[in-house]
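Renewal narrative, Specific Aim 1. Our central claim is that a sequence can be written position by position from structural information alone. The example that follows is taken directly from our test logs and has not been curated for this report. It begins with the structure tokens describing the chain, in the order in which they were read.
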């Protein structure tokens, strides 16, 4: 549980750092560009790189926490059932 909270805190701090301009979007942009190239979609323009990095960070938080919640929810239903 502490690990999940720690990962969420790090991702939120990274998102605030990118949004505030403290952390350059290029730092996270490498992963975004690899994913875009793998999927086969066009890369974002340098002006939109910050917004795309923020969207990917928020998506990772929502998907990761959602999967964990569903795992715990379904596991609890099986144990009770």
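The sequence written for that structure reads:
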């Amino acid at each position: 549980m502490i690990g999940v909270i720690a990962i969420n805190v790090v991702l939120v701090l990274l998102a605030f750092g990118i949004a505030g301009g403290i952390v350059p979007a290029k730092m996270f942009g490498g992963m975004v560009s690899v994913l875009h190239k793998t999927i086969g979609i066009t890369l974002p323009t340098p002006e939109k790189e910050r917004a795309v990095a923020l969207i990917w960070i928020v998506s990772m938080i929502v998907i990761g926490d959602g999967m964990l919640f569903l795992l715990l929810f379904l596991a609890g239903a099986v144990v009770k059932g």
